[in-house]
Amino acid sequence: MSHKILILPGDGIGPEIVAEATRLLHALKDRFALAVELEEAAIGGAGYDAAGEPLPQATLDLAREADGVLLGAVGGPRYDQLPWEKRPERGLLAIRSQLELFANLRPAILYPQLASASALKPDIVGGLDLMILRELTGGAYFGQPRGIRTREDGVREGFNTLIYSEPEIERIARSGFEIAMKRGRRLCSVDKANVLEVSQLWREVVERVARDYPDVALSHMYVDNAAMQLVRAPKQFDVIVTENMFGDILSDAAAMLTGSIGMLPSASLDAQGKGLYEPIHGSAPDIAGQGMANPLATLLSVAMMLRYSLGEAAQADRVEAAVGRVLDQGQRTPDIWSEGCAKVGTREMGEAVVAALAD
């Protein structure tokens, strides 16, 4: 059967990096018999431009029919004056919610060729390979009530609701334990249980789920300490599971350990393994159209899609190996460039990865 893949270029550098991912998928189809059908649609600012909504209904319908969705990035300053519900970021939150993509997988892997590009010393980050599992459809980003109001004394105040139910916590915890079973069998649950009642419930539920996974060593860490430990001794972690806002922050911090945020893919999965795949960086409007964006996170997101949603592990291995070969060749986009390496643009890097694909 042919896999249906929906391509959502989005805004900013999104179309540039997604173009290289599309090139890669066509190469896998033509050279290695990957059975895929590609379709493209608009989201974010592009969705607003096309249909007046950051997530057009036509895009959502196609996403529901697809086996996997590949997203570039959303957002840009030209949309900053739109009403909140029309802004590009609302399209991203909406598609995650509508597709019930509750589990966000963000690996932080340091390629040995990029050890010198990390913000930390090579002996601290060398061999880094951790997975951050972020709950994606709950917490303060979706909680109700929310808004900005004026008190009786005339003072304006903003408010958001941080809320998690037991079933929401249990399903992300169970996903974390399942992933840990396939890795180093160590799971660190990050919360703020010394301050927040929602974190106290989080910890209680995680400990209950842990009884079903006796082979996984469970630990707990407050989020402020976890942030410190990520830059002090990141290799102590195998799998981190945490709530939406904490995961958003910690995964971006982990990105800098790998040399560049342009190197990190992500997967957002539903209960059946269907997912939306995207690089964790933003739309970078300051460099959009200049052909200098790093497409490797997007290409590695394709690899994650092949592995987690399409059941094409061998093709995923092929893509990841090709990225390693290109780095061995010394080819670098500006964000990961160092003396002695060849500085290349977005298209050149994408072409190099396609050329490096091997049986």
From TrEMBL:
TM region(s), chain numbering: none
Residues bound to substrate: 96, 106, 134, 224
Quaternary data: Homodimer.
Record-listed E.C. numbers: 1.1.1.85
PANTHER family reported in the protein's UniProt record: 3-ISOPROPYLMALATE DEHYDROGENASE (PTHR42979:SF1)
Keywords associated with the record: Amino-acid biosynthesis, Branched-chain amino acid biosynthesis, Cytoplasm, Leucine biosynthesis, Magnesium, Manganese, Metal-binding, NAD, Oxidoreductase
InterPro entries for this protein: IsoCit/isopropylmalate_DH_CS (IPR019818), IsoPropMal-DH-like_dom (IPR024084), Isopropylmalate_DH (IPR004429)
GO cellular component, one term: cytosol
Protein name in UniProt: 3-isopropylmalate dehydrogenase
Gene: leuB
Cell compartments where the protein resides: Cytoplasm
Biological process per Gene Ontology, one example term: L-leucine biosynthetic process
Family statement drawn from the similarity comment of this UniProt entry: Belongs to the isocitrate and isopropylmalate dehydrogenases family. LeuB type 1 subfamily.
Residue ranges of every copy of the Isopropylmalate dehydrogenase-like domain listed in the record: 4-353
Pfam entry (one): Iso_dh
Positions with a binding annotation for Mg(2+): 224, 248, 252
Catalysed transformations (reactions): (2R,3S)-3-isopropylmalate + NAD(+) = 4-methyl-2-oxopentanoate + CO2 + NADH
Cofactor(s) this protein cannot do without: Mn(2+); Mg(2+)
